[in-house]
Specification:
mainly alpha; globular
């Protein structure tokens, strides 16, 4: 009896969780001229592909896809490697004042982005990094490193120090121990961090809105937000179709890597 109740509760919660997805699909498929909020729950027609085409044309999503893909691959890759190196130095090399260094690195997450966005904009304008791909890669990497260092430090803490000592006795250099022993052991944790940070970067709006303005530099969500304006904005059905298109890559990424994701998070605890 308790199993039936638990299954029923989970099904109901799952349906409630999927309601926004249903609304997104239904309203993104409606013809723009026939869209009305009064019938948002009722499917009327199917114009999803034409709406997606209009979204691509009006927002310049095609130009933003390449830039966002670069940001979502390069920045998390650099961040996980730097975070792994920091965790390795603190735990395996037993860096002097290692915990203080860890607090210093992780302290970057204490202040919300909203507090530093104006100084960041001013600094980027002064050093000619505003509206450049390099500038976006730098800021996305910087905000991804603290979390990476946090997870990797926790992961490497679970590896006995005798592993490092045995590798040293075998004559391996520090670099070889890091790349040939510790990184392969941490592959699941590295993948989990990469997925989380890549998803964050792909869905970012604030940094892209503040630090970029060109269609070939700004992230894809920022380009999507530009479709909605006070004057001459796109129809809601077109905007929703664009939002559906933008969200698909992160969903596909998670579905194909969910085993690594779950395993990596469990190891990083």
């Amino acid at each position: 009896m308790s199993r039936v109740i638990r299954t029923t509760v989970l099904i109901v919660l799952g349906l409630v969780w999927l309601l926004p997805v249903y609304l997104l699909l239904i309203n993104a498929s409606k013809a723009p001229e026939g869209f009305t909020s009064k019938e948002s729950w009722i499917p009327t027609d199917f114009s999803l592909f034409s709406n997606i085409g209009d979204a691509m044309r009006l927002s310049g999503l095609g130009e933003s896809v390449l830039s966002t893909l670069v940001y979502a691959v390069v920045s998390p890759t650099i961040a996980v490697l730097v975070g792994a190196a920091a965790g390795f130095a603190i735990v395996a090399l037993r860096l002097r004042h290692g915990f203080a260094w860890f607090v210093l690195i992780f302290g970057g997450t204490v202040f919300p982005i909203q507090m530093i966005i104006l100084p960041l904009f001013d600094a980027y304008s002064r050093v000619s990094l505003f509206d450049t791909r390099l500038g976006m890669i730098i800021v996305y990497t910087a905000i991804s490193i603290p979390f990476s260092a946090f997870v990797m430090r926790n992961f490497f803490t679970g590896i006995g120090h005798n592993v490092f000592e045995a590798a040293v006795l075998d004559g391996a250099s520090t670099w070889r121990i890091f790349t040939r022993v510790y990184l392969p052991m941490a592959s699941s944790a590295l993948v989990a961090i990469f997925i989380l940070q890549a998803t964050f970067i792909w869905n970012d709006l604030l940094l892209g809105l503040t630090l970029s303005q060109s269609d070939d530099v700004r992230p894809i969500v920022t380009s999507l937000a530009g479709m909605q304006s006070t004057y001459g904005g796109a129809q809601m059905a077109t905007v929703l179709a664009g939002g559906l298109l933008v969200s698909l890559p992160t969903v596909v990424l998670f579905l194909f890597t969910q085993k690594f994701f779950a395993r990596g998070l469990a190891l990083g605890q």
